[in-house]
UniProtKB/TrEMBL annotation:
<dbReference type="InterPro" id="IPR011990">
    <property type="entry name" value="TPR-like_helical_dom_sf"/>
</dbReference>
<feature type="repeat" description="TPR">
    <location>
        <begin position="114"/>
        <end position="147"/>
    </location>
</feature>
<dbReference type="GO" id="GO:0017004">
    <property type="term" value="P:cytochrome complex assembly"/>
</dbReference>
<dbReference type="InterPro" id="IPR056413">
    <property type="entry name" value="TPR_CcmH_CycH"/>
</dbReference>
<dbReference type="InterPro" id="IPR051263">
    <property type="entry name" value="C-type_cytochrome_biogenesis"/>
</dbReference>
<dbReference type="GO" id="GO:0005886">
    <property type="term" value="C:plasma membrane"/>
</dbReference>
<protein>
    <submittedName>
        <fullName>C-type cytochrome biogenesis protein</fullName>
    </submittedName>
</protein>
<keyword id="KW-0677">Repeat</keyword>
<dbReference type="InterPro" id="IPR019734">
    <property type="entry name" value="TPR_rpt"/>
</dbReference>
<feature type="domain" description="Cytochrome c-type biogenesis protein H TPR">
    <location>
        <begin position="65"/>
        <end position="221"/>
    </location>
</feature>
<keyword id="KW-0802">TPR repeat</keyword>
<keyword id="KW-0201">Cytochrome c-type biogenesis</keyword>
<dbReference type="Pfam" id="PF23914">
    <property type="entry name" value="TPR_CcmH_CycH"/>
</dbReference>
Amino acid sequence: LAAIVAGGWIIVARTRRRVRIRRDVLADAIPAAGPRAGVGVYLPGVVIALVVAAISYSQTGSYQQVRAWQQATAQTPGLLARALDPQAQPLNEEEMARLALGLRTRLQNDAGNVEGWLMLGRTGMVLGNAGTATGAYANAYRLDPKNSDAALGYAEALTRSSDPEDNRRGGELLRRLVSRDHTDIRVLSLYAFSAFEQQRFDEAVAAWEMMLKLLPAGDARRAVIERSIRLAQEK
């Protein structure tokens, strides 16, 4: 029994020694770091990553778009005042684009503002942006169908569209406007132009002749209208 016990202790001692040796080998293989590294060790890398990300973001369109939107929103009141003042310096194309962006932002929170949609429609026409102009005038006309500026602006945007279906709808709207008031020079002029463009020359001549009856004898527009009538009659 004593031999067995002694042999058991020898085995246990050797096993403990092997485990201790393995632990020592593993400890030697792992660099001694001393105390556990704190957050400060990783902080420079995090800062560098953030700086790189910020530079990349500032150079992309997203940051520039947000900055342009913020500038346009802040400048909208001043740009709008200049646009409405006939004595003020006219807006250039870049300023008109900022005004359009600012107006769209305002109208997101004030979608029932007819005058705002009309102004956006006019701005879109000046910029040659058919989508902006047509959409804005459509909203104004939907909100107030009896508003002559909204109706005429919408009709003009439709007649100047590159889509034949828009042209057809614009012509129908103009016919309704003429039947409602055949003394409105603006409506007659746009109707005549639309009819001429769509090769409805008889309708164009009829509209121009109605305009001649409304204009005074010395009006400079009479000569232009008379030339247009002759041109249409030759077609």
